[in-house]
């Protein structure tokens, strides 16, 4: 196409320029929807803000280990804490209102009183995170999360659960 | 023209067959054949959907970044790279969503809670939201080239979050367990059949990823061509009007 | 068993959401393909 007879030069003379809105053709009707994208983008920014706030208002470390109480920054006794430890063998006792047990980590043991029945896969010899406050050497928990390890071992139906483990140290 | 063969080829059809076969096999192995875990019991079966979902989401986002770099580099610049980036990010968001939901169900069974703001869960949520934002940016409009350049820059920034997510379990104390297979230690502490099932899960998710990205990339191309043809159509209409008006 | 519901739900969520997404992609391409000539599709 040569330059001279190209119809591309629309708009050079004011008479030929028609600025009135046109009926969209069938093909043009398939338009992008930028307003939808903008709404999504606003929601995303808001959600990102919420996530960041949640992150910044809670400690970057999810918990303190039992032996870190009073020793590590952010793990001072007297404030609300999340403590991680391994439930001691034979220490779990249930009474009507509370579950009592002790958990240890790094050679330090901590007695825990939890109001209620722990959920998840709570049992002896498993690492747990307890949320609560330390009072007079006893950790008063109001939330327990079971922190299972990244070790996966097939359940052996022949093993007599409880018999061999009882009284011994946790094998894992 | 046969309508049901719009984006498929003999290759994607064969691939689709293996995807269906793999899904069936994964369900059989994951739910029925593989053993229950000594601590977690039956709930360990959720891992075979949760972990491959997360890994393939990472891979999808890395693929988005690589394709975006290929678009930005002048020698390889092509809108095909941009469309692969977009398709891959969409599939990545889908897989990440799957991983979040299945992880939440798994967490309820083992931890005793659906959600908690530990470092792994928080960084994952942030990654998920970032890529939804990336997809929204792709939809903002403008020319295909504007879309491609804008989203490519964003993709190269967003991919930097992935190492933070993956290593969050080692950098900080988290409720989430550390990585079992791609962790710092070299020994994999996992029963053989469990490991095989997990491996099968990764294979199945990889095949699903390839199938989905191929189809989505082609459908994005069709949509781009449709936009272009709409533009051509509008231009030729205006030319016709202008020629008439000039006479 | 309580766990079973959660396990089945996680597999259902996984494969149903992938299937729905795949269906959506095929649907969108079919719609777009009506106006794009067959000879312009490089993969065919």
The number of E-state strands of chain C comes to 0
Q: Name the poorly predicted regions of chain C.
A: none
Number of strands of chain A: 7
Strand content of chain C: under 5%
- Separation, N- and C-terminal Cα atoms of chain C: 50 Å
Kindly report how far apart the N and C termini of chain A lie: 80 Å
Shape of chain C: rod-shaped
- The Cα radius of gyration of chain C reads 18 Å
Rg of chain A computed from alpha carbons, rounded to a whole number of angstroms: 32 Å
How many structural domains of chain C?
1
Largest sheet descriptor of chain A = 5 strands, mixed, barrel
Summarize the structure.
Chain A is built from 1 helix and 7 strands; from the N terminus they run αβββββββ. Chain A is of the alpha+beta class.
Describe the protein:
- The complex is a heterotrimer of chains A (172), B (247) and C (44).
- By secondary structure, chain A is an alpha+beta fold.
- Chain A has a domain at 64-146: OB fold (Dihydrolipoamide Acetyltransferase, E2P), CATH 2.40.50.140.
- Chain A has one helix spanning 34-57; strands spanning 64-65, 80-87, 93-94, 98-105, 108-115, 127-135, 138-146.
- Chain A has a 5-stranded mixed barrel with strand order 2-4-5-7-6.
- The radius of gyration of chain A is 32 Å and the shape is elongated.
- The model of chain A is unreliable at 1-12, 24-30 and 160-168 (pLDDT under 50).
- Chain B has one domain (21-182, 190-246).
- Chain B is 74% helix and 0% strand.
- Chain B has 7 helices and no strands.
- Chain B has helices at 10-33, 47-72, 79-110, 119-138, 144-158, 161-171, 192-246.
- With 44 residues, chain C is mostly helical.
- Chain C has one domain (2-34).
- Classes of the chains: A alpha+beta (172), B mainly alpha (247), C mainly alpha (44).
- Chains A and B meet through helix 1, strand 1 and strand 7 of A and helix 3, helix 4 and helix 7 of B.
């Amino acid at each position: 196409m040569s330059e001279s007879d190209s119809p591309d030069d629309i708009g050079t003379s004011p008479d030929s320029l028609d600025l009135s809105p046109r009926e969209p053709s069938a093909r043009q009707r398939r338009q992008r929807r930028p307003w939808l994208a903008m709404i999504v983008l606003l929601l995303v920014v808001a959600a990102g803000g919420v996530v960041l706030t949640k992150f910044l208002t809670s400690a970057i470390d999810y918990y303190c280990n039992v032996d870190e109480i009073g020793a590590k920054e952010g793990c001072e006794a007297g404030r609300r804490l999340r403590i991680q430890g391994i439930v001691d063998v034979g220490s779990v006792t249930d009474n009507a209102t509370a579950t009592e047990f002790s958990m240890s980590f790094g050679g330090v043991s901590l007695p825990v009183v939890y109001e209620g029945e722990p959920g998840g896969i709570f049992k002896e010899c498993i690492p747990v995170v307890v949320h609560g406050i330390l009072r007079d050497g006893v950790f008063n928990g109001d939330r327990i999360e079971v922190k299972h390890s990244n070790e996966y071992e097939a359940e052996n139906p022949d093993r007599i659960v409880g018999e061999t483990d009882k009284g011994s140290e946790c094998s894992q | 023209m046969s309508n049901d063969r719009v984006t498929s080829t003999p290759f994607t059809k064969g691939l689709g067959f293996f995807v269906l076969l793999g899904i069936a096999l994964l369900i059989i192995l994951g739910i029925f054949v593989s053993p229950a875990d000594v601590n977690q019991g039956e709930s360990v079966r959720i891992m075979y959907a949760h972990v491959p979902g997360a890994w393939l989401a990472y891979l999808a986002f890395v693929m988005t970044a690589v394709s975006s770099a290929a678009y930005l580099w002048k020698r390889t610049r092509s809108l095909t790279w941009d469309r692969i980036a977009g398709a891959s990010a969409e599939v990545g968001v889908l897989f990440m969503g799957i991983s979040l939901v299945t992880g939440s169900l798994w967490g309820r069974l083992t931890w005793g809670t659906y959600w908690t703001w530990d470092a792994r869960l928080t960084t994952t949520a942030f990654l998920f939201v970032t890529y939804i934002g990336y997809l929204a940016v792709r939809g903002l409009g403008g020319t295909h080239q504007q879309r491609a350049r804008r989203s490519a820059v964003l993709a190269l920034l967003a991919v930097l979050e992935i190492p933070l997510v993956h290593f969050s379990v080692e950098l900080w104390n988290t409720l989430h367990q550390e990585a079992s297979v791609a962790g710092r230690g070299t020994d994999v502490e996992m029963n053989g059949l469990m490991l095989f099932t997990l491996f099968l899960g990764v294979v199945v998710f990889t095949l699903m990823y390839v199938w989905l990205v191929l189809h989505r990339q082609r459908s994005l191309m069709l949509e781009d061509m449709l936009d272009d043809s709409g533009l051509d159509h509008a231009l030729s209409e205006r030319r016709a009007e202008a020629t008439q008006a000039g006479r | 068993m309580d766990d079973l519901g959660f396990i089945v739900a996680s597999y259902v969520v996984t494969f149903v959401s992938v299937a729905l997404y795949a269906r959506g992609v095929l649907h969108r391409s079919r719609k777009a393909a009506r106006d794009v000539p067959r000879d312009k599709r490089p993969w065919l």
